[in-house]
Amino acid sequence: MLETIDTSMIDWSRAQFALTAMYHWLFVPLTLGLAVVMGLMETMYVISGNEFWKRTAKFWMKLFGINFAVGVATGLILEFQFGTNWSNYSWFVGDIFGAPLAIEGIVAFFMEATFIAVMFFGWNKVSKSFHLTSTWLTGLGATFSAWWILVANSWMQYPVGMKFNPETVRNEMFDFAAVAFSPVAVMKFLHTVLSSWMLGAAFVIGVSAWYLIRKREKEFALASMKIAAGVGLFASLVTAFSGDKSAYQVAQYQPMKLAAMEALYEGGTHEPLTVVGSLKIPAMLSYLATHDTDGYVPGINNILRGGYTLPDGSQALSVEEKMVRGKKAIAALGDFRKAKEAGDQHAMEAARSVLDENMPYFGYGYIKDPAHVVPHVSLLFWTFRIMVGLGVYFIGFFALILILASKPRFLQLTWLHHLAVWSILLAYVASQAGWIVAELGRQPWAIQDMLPVNAAISKLETGSVQTTFFIFLIMFTVLLIAEIRIMLNAIKQGPEGK
To answer: Is the pTM of this model over 0.85?
Structure first.
């Protein structure tokens, strides 16, 4: 059946999912970032009793609400695509992948929906402390939601806690804790959520700087910038820490992704980290990948050829050898099902033994050419550097704002105010670049080493996927334009609603 699938349909389905994911990710990080900033501002109000902080918190809550509403709409469409465009994927691992998404929908989303109503409409109806609790629980609900979505995504990068059942032809979960708290999920959560705090902080600083450029709302702008800069600096430093840990995990579990990110074709020991061009940091890649400057880092060609020593002491198989073993696993699965239909217990056991032996390479049985396991090297190389470069930039940016915002001359630094406004765009570029690295680096796998995208797809007509692609493109663009216009209008009115 897979041989008859039009490859252009696979490409269009991937493009549609990428379109939806990237639009959705325009809204999620701002939601997570603003939740922290507005929570801190309302906390200042409850502690001090100063109405200034209440007006400040309500202004950022208004922008939070606008962004939150549009983000929900795109997120729902994104989840439905697993059933419409990726039905083989949903069948193969639905028992595992569906669990965190179900928890996210039932618990986290309802938690957000409950407390967001109190946050927006309960100012004069509940006590200050209860309202503050609702504000923080709204943000916690959004963060809790992100946790379960990132658990699902991390499992696609590092599948654990499951066992393949040839009776049902499905992977079934046997260890929920291994899935929910895998080291990849923990680091991905820290890296993603803290980078979202960075974006939210950059947004608050940029909007506040716009007021300073217009010589409006100076007290409001300065107070907002100080809080946001503190949040941003903390978040950027923790993001850098989690990024280092994530790089180590990528080296262990997704070596091809790391090799592509570095455009490393022939690996070795004492491998330098390429900054740009011929500018390299000696032995840094070996240290990041193995925590040892003498550590061996395989390149793209090494991974394709195999033969190098793995950390556990075994020899790496070539991709061609993995493809052969994957085909054995697929054939054994077919033999198992035939033997089951015939009631031949002995043949079932023999086929099951071959299947279990070769199951780690099952996904390679659908790979038609070893070169297909190499992701887009140049795009990964540059997006990774954009992400890291902007991460370093924001550490300096937040530190600079935090230091200067309390100085009298800060109001005269118009160049810095303009830079702050443009930094909103840079924060979005860094955020999108991070997701491109994470998701494109996994290709061609829907689930790392287990299921390639050509085996995960639904059997659809290419024309129907093309049609929905352009429908979503138009719809999401309209939503984005509408959100930007509504936000700009709210910003122009200011915290006093002028």
So the answer is: yes
